[in-house]
Amino acid sequence: MSGGKRMTAAVAALVAVAALLTGCSGDEAEDYVTFRFANSPTALSLVRIADELGYWKDAGVRPEYVGPATTVPATQLLSQGKVDIATGMQSDNITAYSKGVNGFTIIASSMLDLPEEPHMAYFVKAGSDISLTNLKAVEGRRIGVSGINSCTDLVIKRLLKKNGVDLSKVQFVELKNELVAPALEKGEIDLGVFHPPLVGVLLSQKAKFTQIATSFDDWGELGGQAPFKASNTWLKANPDAAREFVGIIAKTANWANEHPKESAEIAGKTTGYPVEQTTNWHYAPNALLDKASLNLWWDLVEEVGEVTPQWRSVTIEQMATNAYNPFAKTADLLESQTENKTIITAEQNSAILDSPLVQR
């Protein structure tokens, strides 16, 4: 018994010496929180751009990349605790909350929309008679979208409806993102809806494809927010890590906006598309969330989408907060991004802000 105690003490002493020597060698202790991030390898991501910039390297919070389960919505995976942070269109978030799937909170903003950096762009085959001034020509034809009731589906539908197109005469074909361009080239669809980085790839192939419009033509600079949302379980266990995460996302968004060419090149590198051809999104400065770009989805889905019975019982204040953002003065959502045009370099608070949505 006493021998066992002496052995334990000896081992403890060796461990202590080893730790001291390690400290003297200059190696840093691996003390950080991980978050499982659901993201497709071919999708743009501020998380992965931050990785390329080295922002996670010495941070107290770092990503663990998890392949998305395509048949299971990210909102469900978050609520089930199978991933910790994800992005996704606001229409999916509203639908989830209206169905009682509310184990997540929206904590940071994502893309906006600019004419030169649109959220989405619409392409036809070169030589097609379909154009922004002749959208009626799409009647009786097929449009390729990556998801029904998603941004690729809803925004083009509203643009068509505004231009007098009878949506019942258009066939919407659901395809994986990477299959839309081949289908358009082969004539299997007549119009395709695309996100960056593929927008730039198609723009570089003018002999094959023609861009006829972008999402900016429908909703201006409001943009179709696909905000960052975190599992409430993870937020409760790691509040400080959540605040640091939002700060790094804000820093990355601001860098990308100031360096569109370089960020587009990183977008190409991280998604596997030709670097010289890719395009990136424009992001909400400082990752601050606002009501306008999130609330537009209620009207959009009711106009051309599919709503659940409890759709209107959900409000943005129930699911989104700036409480975890170090560049926010209050936890309240901004009214719109018109209040958020200047890049903020100094933190505006020293701790998580008070909000009913902060997980205690």
Automatic annotation (TrEMBL):
Gene3D superfamilies reported for this sequence: Periplasmic binding protein-like II
Q: Could you say which residues form the signal peptide?
A: 1-29
Q: What InterPro entries is this protein classified in? A: SsuA/THI5
**Alphabetic keyword roster:** Signal
- Coarse class of the primary localization is periplasm
Domain of life according to the entry: Bacteria
Q: Where is the SsuA/THI5-like domain?
A: 49-262
- For whether the record's keyword set contains Signal, the answer is yes
Q: Does the keyword Cell wall biogenesis/degradation apply?
A: no
List where in the cell it is found: Periplasm
* PROSITE patterns hit by this protein: PROKAR_LIPOPROTEIN
Instruction: Give the similarity note.
Output: Belongs to the bacterial solute-binding protein SsuA/TauA family.
Protein name per Swiss-Prot or TrEMBL = ABC transporter substrate-binding protein
